[in-house]
Amino acid sequence: MIHRVLPSPLLLVAWRLTVAASGLLGVVLAAQVYDVWWTALSQLANLAVAGTYAALAVLAAAGRDTGRSWLPGALAATMCLVALAYLPQQNGNLLTAWSLLEHVVTPVLVVLDYVLGRRRAAARWWHPLTWTIAPLAYLAWYVSADLAVYDALDPGRPLVMTGQVVVLGAVLVGCGYALVATGRRTVVA
Please, which of 32, 57, 104, 123 could form a disulfide with 16 given CB 3.0 to 4.6 Å? Predict the structure, then answer.
């Protein structure tokens, strides 16, 4: 458990700031490369990680860590989706620092924090279903604003897009339930 591995509040704050910095640095580096960096799920998810983990660091520093699991679980599931969906996409590579941070380093840190932290014990069986809210909101914005960021998600090809959305949704929910199950198994052990 992160709280056992990092018994000092100062170490916990440092850990959370490291996770936040990883997410933020990936976004900053991506923004230097792409004019529309804010339209991609990868960058938005990493930005959410940066903000959330900075806030969690502040809470830990103030001794007010509640141990609530919903938001960290939602971020962990979404970061799994970001990592697992990126490489199969056309042009997916890890040859740049921003891509490596956004699609590997930050997702690994967020998942480790969730699985090893005490929050995972509080996860309910229905949480993974609700963890789809933010990605579904992104999808609604993506379609309504005609963002055209991803070739595989082309509203002009509704059957292909529907198939992709079903697969991505299954990956998201599957990762969510895997996170919950891993956390519960760790708690029982």
Answer: 57
Quote the pLDDT of residue 94: 82
Contact 78, 62 (CB under 8 A): no
In this prediction, residue 67 carries a pLDDT of: 67
- Cβ within 8 Å of residue 167, ≥6 positions away: none
Q: How far is CA 103 from CA 38, 80, 109, 141, 155, in A?
A: 15, 9, 11, 22, 25
Q: Are 29 and 98 in contact (CB under 8 A)?
A: yes
Q: How many separate domains does the chain show?
A: 1
Give the C-alpha distances (Å, rounded to integers) separating 127 from 4, 97, 160, 179.
Answer: 25, 32, 28, 10
From the list 35, 4, 3, the residue with the least C-alpha distance to 16 is 3
Residue in the structure block whose two tokens are 């789809």: 132
Q: Name the residue range of residue 98's domain.
A: 2-188
Q: Tell me which amino acid residue 22 is.
A: S
127-149 pLDDT, tens digit per residue, is 999 999 999 999 999 999 999 88
